[in-house]
Amino acid sequence: MRIYYYIPYHDKPSWGIGIVMHHISILNENGFNASAIIRDEKTTYEWLDFDVPSITRKDFKSVKLEKQDVLVVPEVSVDFKSLKKLNCIKILFIQNLGYVFNNLPKNETHKSLGFDYVFSIMPHMSGVIEKYIDLPEVMIPPFILENFKVEETKMGFDHKKNKIVMFPKFDQIDYKIVYSLLNRRYGKKLNFFERKKWEIVELKGYTHKEVSDVFKESKFFIALNTFESLNASIVEAMASGCIVYTYEGYGSRDFIRDGENCFSFQNNEPYLLVEKLNQFIDQISTNGDLIYEMQKNARHTSESYSRSKTEYALVEFFNTLKR
User: Fold this and answer.
1) Please, what is the Cα angle at 252 between 111 and 213, to 5 degrees?
2) 296 and 219 together in one domain
3) 7 and 97 part of one domain
4) What is the pLDDT of residue 168?
5) How far apart are CA 44 and CA 195, in angstroms?
6) What percent of the chain has pLDDT over 70?
7) 74-78, 212-216, 239-243: the lowest-pLDDT one
8) How many CA within 13 A on the CB side of residue 189?
9) How many other β-carbons are positioned within 10 Å of the β-carbon of residue 84?
10) What are the two backbone dihedrals, phi and then psi, of residue 89, each rounded to the nearest 5 degrees?
11) Are 95 and 74 in contact, with CB atoms under 8 Å apart?
12) Which of 6, 322, 323, 318 is nearest to 138 (CA)?
């Protein structure tokens, strides 16, 4: 049994692609024969700190697939019609429900294209898969890297700087509102004696390692995504000891708990989010116990997203295919 993962082209760091590449690495570590199908010979993923066996899309066309071979295809960036003629086990790998039907040919379903299974990553996906895709679902939980996790001895804010981190969403009005309001109160453009001594950090152009370093030294993280199956940056920030202010989003509802592991708000409530953050900062010197308790709960949440759990689910499934 040979296992191929189709890799969408993306020239910027993407943890979605990172997860797929880790699938391949995990399978090979466990004795399987897994490879990545990449765009061409020039395609590289330098932001990953490991390599996996790969084959170009052009060369893959000449591979003679057998019935026991497996092709894992993401929900995005693939010519689904060309898959219909392939005589192998086909798995649809869904990491974001928002793109599942975008490239699906008219008058076709995933079942009619010959897909046999669906890989999902979060519990909230199950209802959609059952109702609209109607294929056997296999939950392969995602994970975050260990280097995001801070030691328990470094809980609290004593080891952190006055930094507020935001993941940039330049085309989102909520992002523009929150960023503008924070800059009015804390921004560097203000007179030094007028502004509070805080820095607002936009996570633009950072490598995964650099994001980890920023999170570990920052006190707050703001997430304004409204539709993602897993906003991994929330879990990474939780693991790093940041107090997270986030929209309830979509998939995030599977793990965020307002007032316990984060502060959550209804989608499109930017003014309330900023108001509550400002209040927390104004009272930060008296919030020590709350900070520690929320960090402890957030760390516990992040521990649910470990590579070992991904490995267990992945290996167990492919072992069943081999039987």
Assistant:
1) 115
2) yes
3) yes
4) 80
5) 43
6) 96
7) 74-78
8) 6
9) 13
10) -80, 125
11) yes
12) 318
The model's pLDDT over 152-205, given as tens digits with 9 standing for 90+, comes to 777 889 889 999 999 887 788 999 999 999 988 887 655 555 556 888 999 887
Residue 152 domain boundaries: 146-302
Beta strand pairing call for 199-202 and 243-247: unpaired
The residue among 197, 231, 250, 214 whose CA lies nearest residue 302 is 231
State how far the Cα of 43 lies from the Cα of 204, in Å rounded to an integer. 22
Angle at alpha carbon of residue 141, lines to 137 and 143, rounded to 5°: 160
CB 5 within 8 A of CB 294: no
In the DSSP assignment, the letter for residue 258 is: B
**How high is the pLDDT of residue 101?**
86
Chain centre distance of CA 162? 25
Sheet holding 199-202, edge to edge: 199-202, 161-166, 218-223, 243-247, 263-265
Q: Is 42 exposed, middle or buried (0-12, 13-18, 19+ CB in 10 A)?
A: exposed
Please say whether the beta carbons of 248 and 264 come within 8 A: yes
The first and second tokens of residue 187, run together, are 């921004």
Residues 276 and 314 in one domain: no
At 50, which amino acid appears? Answer: F
Q: For residue 173, what are its two tokens?
A: 């009005």
Q: What does the angle CA 214 – CA 217 – CA 222 come to, to the nearest 5 degrees?
A: 65
Give the DSSP letter of residue 135.
S
Instruction: Write out the two tokens for 194.
Output: 């007028």
Question: What pLDDT sits at residue 227?
Answer: 80
Structural domains of the chain, count:
2
Alpha-carbon span 167 to 94, nearest angstrom: 23
DSSP string computed for 285-303: GG-HHHHHHHHHHHHHHHT
Locate tokens 């209040």: which residue? 279
What's this model's pTM, rounded to 2 decimal places? 0.89
Those residues whose C-beta lies under 8 Å from the C-beta of residue 158, and which sit 6 or more positions away, are none
CATH of the domain at 257: 3.40.50.2000
Indicate if the pLDDT at residue 247 is higher than 70: yes
